[in-house]
Amino acid sequence: MRVGDLVETNSGFRGIITEVEMMYPRHPQSPVGRVAVEWIGDAPTWHHTRGQLFSAFSVKVLSHANR
Fold it and tell me: What is the pTM of this model?
């Protein structure tokens, strides 16, 4: 997961990743820990604050951003 990827929740809400936080910031091969998403249209009911970081396991990637 990287900034700009299109993601979706299991309930169908879609958005674009705006921030990525790694599980182990100092390790070069660290997996993604948390992400912030800008939702397209309505946001999920559990997402109350804009820019809130939440588990990367809450969403799945639909499309990767151009690299």
Answer: 0.86
